[in-house]
Structure formats: structure tokens, C-alpha cells
Design a protein that fits this description.
Elements: H1 3-19, E1 29-34, E2 37-40, E3 56-58, H2 75-84, E4 90-94, H3 97-104, E5 126-127, H4 135-144, E6 150-153, E7 157-162, H5 165-188, H6 196-206, H7 211-215
Parallel strand pairs: 5-6
Antiparallel strand pairs: 1-2, 1-4, 2-3, 4-7, 6-7
Helix pairs in contact: 2-4, 3-5
């Protein structure tokens, strides 16, 4: 893939994020690993107004060309994720309604449903609060994603990663669906959580799920 196509991929994912209603207004951001750095959405611009030239290349140490747009205020945790997760090709951050509701209540998403394993483990963790755009938040996020592909951020929102930006967005949509279901379960009273042994079996089965796994 050439750079123009990679930039277009980020734009298309950002538009899909906006159209999915996962992130209201100008909130949320999208990135893609590129060479030794990443391509990320610009700060404060409406998704339906951005083009390929507005996508910002951020170098491995956070450097940005003088002629570039200002990158998303959350560029630090995007870059930190790529530094720690070699399998990450795309990252999506959103303020989706139900995931953010749980994040503000400081609740993780436990194994109330086996589909929680879609994020790579027995829960979707909650990482501690830190001011947006800071190194402290980056450290919290990297720790939360060490063994998971998605997490909630206290009093903030959610993050999902994948091999591509589109895959990261698909996971973010799954997380939001699970969050909505969990909020409703909580309103009914007792939550029945699947045990660790069962979730280990589910995670293992997920690794062989789908057509690509069959080809492998």
C-alpha cells in the first residue's frame, strides 16, 4: 500500500466512525501504523471535512512536519500502542455512549457474555483516569492493552486496536454493543459472570473462528 492509500484508509475509517454514531461531534480519533511512525486524524476537525492531506504523519518520537496539521490531542497513546504492540496496525478511540457510561461509573466489562472474549480475554478492562493527551494516560492505556485488544478509560471512553483501522473500528462497535447489553443487565440486578475456565475455552475457540482461521 502506498502512502496516499494509507491516508485514505484513515479518512474512510474516521468517516465510518462518525457515521456509526460511536463518537459524537468531533470527539474520537483514528490512526494507522505507517513505516516507523503512524498516520493519525488531525485535532479538532470534523470528519466529513478532512481529506488525505489533513491526515498527520507522526514520527517514532512524536515529531511532526511543520507544514502538517496538528495531530489529534491523543496522539501519544496511539503512538505508545504501536510501540508496545507489534500486531497493532490500526487504533480507534471513541466516546461511544454505553462504553463511556461504564467508564464514567468506573466499571469494567466482565464476562457476563462469552462475546467479551472478542477483546482477547476474560474481561474488557478499565484503565485509571489521567488527563487527556498526557503521558500518564498513555502509560495507563498501554498497561490496559498489554493482554487485551480493547479497554475502557475511566471518565473518558474506549479504545480498540486491530490489524487495520477498519478492524479496530469493528472491535470498537462490538465493545459498544457489549457495553449497552451490560448496562441493561446491571439494571436488572444480579450479574451472572462466566468463570475463568470457561472464558479460557472461549478465547481459545475464538482463535480458530472465521474463514481466515480456516485458511490458516
Amino acid at each position: 500500500m502506498n502512502e496516499l492509500a494509507a491516508r485514505r484508509e484513515v479518512v474512510e475509517t474516521a468517516l465510518a466512525l462518525s457515521q456509526s454514531k460511536l463518537s459524537p461531534g468531533r470527539s474520537g480519533n483514528v490512526s494507522r501504523r505507517w513505516k516507523n511512525g503512524m498516520l493519525v486524524t488531525p485535532s479538532g476537525m470534523a470528519y466529513d471535512e478532512i481529506g488525505e492531506d489533513d491526515i498527520v504523519f507522526v514520527g517514532p518520537r512524536g515529531g511532526v512536519a511543520k507544514a502538517s496539521r496538528k495531530p489529534s490531542s491523543e496522539w501519544r497513546f496511539h503512538l505508545a500502542i504501536y510501540g508496545e504492540r507489534a500486531d497493532a496496525g490500526g487504533v480507534v478511540h471513541s466516546h461511544s455512549l454505553f462504553a463511556t457510561t461504564l467508564a464514567c461509573a468506573r466499571k469494567n466489562i466482565p464476562a457476563f457474555h462469552y462475546m467479551v472474549a472478542v477483546a482477547g480475554g476474560a474481561d474488557i478492562p478499565l484503565v485509571p483516569y489521567a488527563t487527556f493527551g498526557t503521558e500518564a494516560l498513555s502509560r495507563n492505556v498501554v498497561a490496559g492493552l498489554k493482554e487485551r485488544n480493547a479497554c475502557l478509560m475511566a471518565n473518558h471512553g474506549q479504545i480498540a486496536l486491530g490489524p487495520t483501522p477498519a478492524a479496530a473500528l469493528e472491535l470498537a462497535q462490538e465493545v459498544e454493543t457489549l457495553a449497552a447489553q451490560y448496562v441493561r443487565v446491571l439494571s436488572l440486578g444480579e450479574v451472572h459472570v462466566l468463570d475463568a475456565a470457561e472464558m479460557r475455552k472461549v478465547v481459545k475457540r475464538f482463535k480458530s473462528y472465521g474463514q481466515e482461521a480456516q485458511k490458516g
